[in-house]
Amino acid sequence: MAEQQVAHEGYGLLKGKKGIVFGALDESSIGWQIALAACREGAQLVLSNVAVALRIGALDGLAEACGGATVIPCDASNVEELNGLFSKVREEVGQLDFIVHSLGMSQNIRKGKSYRQVNYDWYLRTLDVSAISLHKMITAALDNDAVADGASIVAMSYIAAQRNYSTYSDMGDAKALLESIVRSYGSRLATRKIRINTVSQSPTPTRAGSGIDNFDKMYEFADRTSPLGNATAEECADYVATLLSDLTRKVTMQNLYHDGGYSSIGTTLPMLRLFHEALKDQELIDGAGFDHLDMD
Ligand SMILES: NC(=O)c1ccc[n+]([C@@H]2O[C@H](COP(=O)([O-])OP(=O)(O)OC[C@H]3O[C@@H](n4cnc5c(N)ncnc54)[C@H](O)[C@@H]3O)[C@@H](O)[C@H]2O)c1
After folding, report:
1. Which of 50, 113, 257, 266 has the fewest CB atoms nearer than 10 Å to its CB?
2. Ligand 1 centroid from CA 22, angstroms
3. How far away, in angstroms, is 277 Cα from ligand 1 center?
């Protein structure tokens, strides 16, 4: 059956709204696609990333494609820089109707450190950049009066917040913290009708995603297990656009899976068959280490 396409001109879901997207690096980035979808839906955008990403990425091109979006460099873990950014936004753009947090990083993953032997300074940095930055971002936006009543805040998460995915290492802990911050801040933000949610996305071939050990295998496993298959970055962006719109104004403090149904599947018959066939191969069994848990 042919897949349904989003109307080329969009649905005007974000007409008249202003928002900021953190974390677009290149075309593969989820944040990049969210920015494109938001501008297709009529939003006026501010884009932000760390200064080095602005240099190596192509954010100016995205800004142009989004009708001349403002670009402001900022390390999202740095309170001073966040305050500078939101004060500039308040002054030059006005109050924002949405904030998208689509960023994260782990030096431990990047440098191939096993979970047992994480570098603790890097571990703290993982939590700071990938999770606490959301708290800092919201506080700075509120302190600078840069967020409007009824705004929507969305941050990107992954199922490793709830389940053990060994290769996701300390990022699993960061995502658990991120989702907890969404709940803790959510009730407070509700006093101004501001909503906040995480979207838990399928494995997606981006720079950050592909940096995970054995990403290609995780991607394929999820794709074959999900009834609808893995969700792409573009599909994620369409979903996020609905969460930024007024259509979802009573959705808050949720972790919303956008994963083709993966999170609700136990197993599937084709996967069982594959597993059963693999078990007939002694060499595969020896190599897989089924007799002990992986300490890494
Ligand atoms: N790719 C996946 O498989 C997948 C799945 C689920 C969730 N996510 C999440 O989606 C979000 C976006 O990641 P992506 O997959 O698009 O990868 P990406 O590499 O395109 O984006 C990560 C971004 O984080 C930015 N960043 C890193 N440190 C920063 C800092 N200190 N301040 C500001 N920005 C910083 C990077 O510059 C980059 O733009 C992340 O939260 C990621 O964990 C990704």
Report:
1. 266
2. 9
3. 37
User: What pLDDT is attached to residue 198?
Assistant: 98
Please name the residue whose Cα sits nearest to atom 20 of ligand 1. 29
Nearest to 240 by CA among 186, 184, 199, 194: 199
Burial class (CB in 10 A: 0-12, 13-18, 19+), 234: middle
Atom of ligand 1 lying closest to residue 219 CA: 3
CB distance 126 to ligand 1 below 6 Å? no
pTM equals 0.96
Nearest protein Cα to ligand 1, atom 1: 209
The verdict on the CB of residue 131 being under 6 Å from ligand 1 is: no
State the Cα angle at 159 between 156 and 162, rounded to 5°: 120
Domain-wise residue ranges, the chain:
18-266
β strands within 29-146, DSSP E: 44-49, 70-73, 96-101
Ranges of residues in the chain with a pLDDT under 70 are 1-4, 289-294
What's residue 1's pLDDT?
A: 59
Residue 3 confidence (pLDDT): 66
Phi/psi at 20 (5° precision) = -120, 140
* Residue-level pLDDT at 294: 65
The strand pairing partners of 99, in sequence order, are 20, 153
Cβ of residue 106 lying under 6 Å from some atom of ligand 1: no
Closest to 221 in 3D by CA, of 255, 173, 175, 270? 270
Predicted local distance difference test score (pLDDT) of residue 291: 56
The architecture of the domain spanning 18-266 is 3-Layer(aba) Sandwich (3.40)
